[in-house]
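re: ur question from yesterday

yeah so i grabbed the chain u mentioned. its 129 aa long if i counted rite. heres the sequnce exactly as i have it in my notes:
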Amino acid sequence: MPQNKFALARYAIIDKLLKKNNYVKTSTVMENCKRNLGYEVSRRTIQMDMHSMKHDNFLGLFAPIEYCSKRKAYYYSDSDYEFAYQQLNLNEVDLLENACSIAARHLQPDQCIILGDVLFKIKKKYMTK
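ran it thru and got these structure tokens back, copy pasting raw so excuse formatting
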């Protein structure tokens, strides 16, 4: 199986390391990939992964990954960033809100509260971007 099929797993490892540490060297990501995925990943692959996480419109991650040349390491410029493979656009959020209002008519009151809380979290995440 080609290693590029493990890209999402590498993205998750990169995100975890960047969340846990202020600065992360490429070699640290490479070591973690080898330990957690069971295969070696090149420095260039990690660099390309980080570039994709930051710039790839199809992925839609738009991770705030920056490089500190002084420390020769990567970091998140926004500590509140949340890694989410699937991003919603505003039209999808609106559609979800309409579907929730229709579904709420058939739910128990406690379920409506939970659904409302979930919708609030989703809207908060997407309306602040």
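noticed a couple things. Residues 109-127 form the longest helix (19 residues). also The mean pLDDT is 86.
anyway ttyl
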